[in-house]
User: Fold this.
Amino acid sequence: MAKDTPPRWDRRMQQRLARGEAAALGELYDRFASLVHSQAHRMLDDEDAADLVTREVFAQVWEDPEAY
Assistant:
C-alpha cells in the first residue's frame, strides 16, 4: 500500500458517506466525535464553541465526503 493511501476502513467509510449512508455518519461520529470535541475544546477553551465546531466538522463530512 502506498504511503499516502488511506487505510481500508477509511476508504470504505468514505464510499459509504458518498452514497449517503446515514449509518456511516453515525459510526464516524461515534468513533471520532470525542476526539474532535476534545481538540476543539483544548484549542478554544470554550465548551459551547467546541460543541459547535464538532457539529460543523461532521456536517462538513456529510456534505462533502470526498474532502475527508
